[in-house]
Amino acid sequence: MAHRKGLVHHISTSSFVLIALVLIGIYYLWSTPPPSSSSASHAHPAHLKSPPLDHAESIQTPLQPPASAVAGGAFQKRLVAVADIHGDLLHTTRLLRTLGLLNLKSEWVGGDTILVQTGDIVDRGRDTIALYRLMDSLRAQATKAGGAVVSLLGNHEIMNALGDWRYVTKEDIATFGGPAPRRLAIGEGWIGQTWRSNYSITARVPFTLGFPSLPSSLVSTVPAEFSDAPQTYVGDVVRPRDPNDPFTHAAISYVHGGIVPDYIKGLRSDNPIREINRIGSELMYSVLNPPVHQSLPLNATAEQRLFWSEHGPMWDRTYALDEDEVAMCARAREACDLLGVRRLVMGHTPHFEGPVSRCEGMVLLIDTGISRAYGGAISATEFLFTLTPDDSSSSPVDQDGEEAEDRGLRRRKTSTTTTTRWRESEVVTAWFVGGREKEVLATSDRVVELPTTG
Fold it and tell me: Is the dihedral of CA 387, 389, 393, 397 positive or negative?
């Protein structure tokens, strides 16, 4: 009898263990992304493998409709900016999941959200390989879903390209298999290639891209070389000049450090955004092969030296550190006018408690020390832009005194044009991981009239 009890106990324990192992296996298969074609062969060293991009084939449908699909004829665009993440995959993925951009399989579920990462992925942590692979994978998935991942270079990317490894950790070097494989990966290998192909210095992201009711005379057009995401956002938007255009500055400027008016004017260019990106791109091409300079090479051009200087776009801290609020805001306003934007967003200078708004939201400092190397707030900044048909005032009438309505949209007709009224609102919000409440950093609200041809 005792033997039978022992046998029953043994069988029950074994069954429990077997069931537990099966459940663990199911969880592992569910939570692990499918293997990429680039990892099918183990003959190539890790530093030369291309990032896995085939996750784009397994994008899940977002739980919410795409951001632009808003009831009542409204249009909505969601932008999200994440600053310096410095080698911390755990905090980065936690943040992207909190924002609703990433599922548990690390796949894009953000619909047509535009994610902007303002550089400094590398250094201070150990997850360089995983983070660049994640960004490359998400870039393809977001584009397929109608969104975008806009990637900018930080000063630490360029420092690594120059061979300045002062902030590289031993653990990070070990993930590459040593200094030589790491040097190869960021030179002629896949990280260097993705820097060249998918990363820029600054981006101007318009709110109205994709707005179906935007008159053809106001539609932002982009030079042919910038026709595909994410390159859509790295040049100056070319517009037919229309004096009635209310959206000339309905865009956000993103950069790692800061872009001050004196630097812009020193470029002597009608296309400053494209010019800044050209200079940065040429510098990266010149130093990546081989990356052993540790400072600018002796043959660096004058424009490259100015670009890499204290008040160039990679290092400038004017908007973060200038205590003269009036003078700083005047410079910010001038920079916005020159760039054709309404807000300047930058990382580089950490504020560990959370993103900082200055000049009534015209300047937003979004580096909060996300990485565990700093221990700051795990945060991102959201920009939610909405256009809603406006019928709050009495109906305008045409010259014959006749009212015209279309889907609740008030319209004023003349013999040649129709003017429609929309209420534009923008809310800038700081998001946090760990239960901290979201914080509104800035808001704007106005009514705009859009001319159409009729």
Answer: positive
